[in-house]
Design a protein that fits this description.
Residues 7-67 form the HTH tetR-type domain. The protein has 9 helices and no strands. With 197 residues, it is mainly alpha-helical. The longest helix has 28 residues, at 120-147.
């Protein structure tokens, strides 16, 4: 098997796994279910990953790479102000978390509480990934301050962390209540914290 074939197979496994794990969580999903969905022979899993833990870590790293690319497209659009880009990001967050079909829900939200106490490598992958999300939010906020489209009281770093924590909490509450109320509140708070235009 060539390196290209191996990478393509890993991508198929990641694609199948993300969809299943976004619904069921990590612990509830068996490797056979993922491999069947990916069309990969059951006995070949350990050719691609050393363990389920290593697979989970690689899945999170793959997920975050795609997530960062999506964030960069939003925040680096020269035709959009930083304020509008930030608000677009949060609107897309709501759409992603409230869709009723398979739509690649956020694995940081889904797995954060579940695996942080079970797998140190996966916890560290989540920590690295979420830190880079906060860094991108900070950069967008800083750009908004420079443009004059964002008015803040805290530092960009403090506000980025506060907003990310707000939206993680809203996502969990939305799962619990099954209403959009927490997202509506988070959106209002975000508009207030960024300064109304």
């Amino acid at each position: 098997m060539t390196t290209t074939d191996s990478n393509q197979t890993r991508q198929r496994i990641f694609g199948a796994a993300q969809s299943i794990i976004a619904r069921k969580g990590f612990s509830a999903v068996g490797l056979n279910e993922v491999l069947n969905a990916a069309g990969v022979p059951k006995g070949s899993f350990y050719h691609y990953f050393a363990s389920k833990d290593a697979f989970g870590t690689a899945l999170l790293e793959h997920y975050f790479e795609t997530y960062f690319a999506d964030m960069d497209r939003i925040f680096q659009d020269p035709a959009t102000s930083a304020h509008d880009a930030l608000m677009r990001y949060w609107q897309l967050w709501i759409s992603n978390q409230t869709c009723q079909v398979e739509c690649g829900k956020c694995l940081a939200v889904k797995l954060g509480a579940e695996v942080a106490d079970l797998s140190e490598p996966m916890r560290l992958a989540l920590r690295r990934g979420t830190a880079q999300i906060v860094e991108r939010l900070e950069a967008a906020i800083s750009r908004g301050v420079e443009e004059g489209t964002v008015t803040i009281v805290a530092t960009p770093a403090q506000l980025a962390l506060r907003l990310y924590a707000l939206w993680l909490g809203a996502s969990v509450m939305t799962k619990i209540t099954r209403t959009p109320d927490s997202f509506e509140e988070a959106l209002q708070q975000t508009q207030h914290l960024l300064g109304n235009q």
